[in-house]
Specification:
Layout: H1 2-40
Amino acid sequence: MVPLLLVLLLALVLFGAGFAIKALWWIAVIVLVLWLIGFFVRPAASGGRRGRWYRW
């Protein structure tokens, strides 16, 4: 009974980790797309130069 519980627990942990990694990949892709949009569509700063779209 204990080995069965350990196998089920291991399967649950691996499934959870796989889901989390897949979710993190999607979040990374969304952040990359937003960064690229912000990079190409940045407002003009004073003096006609293109300004920074981020604050850091």
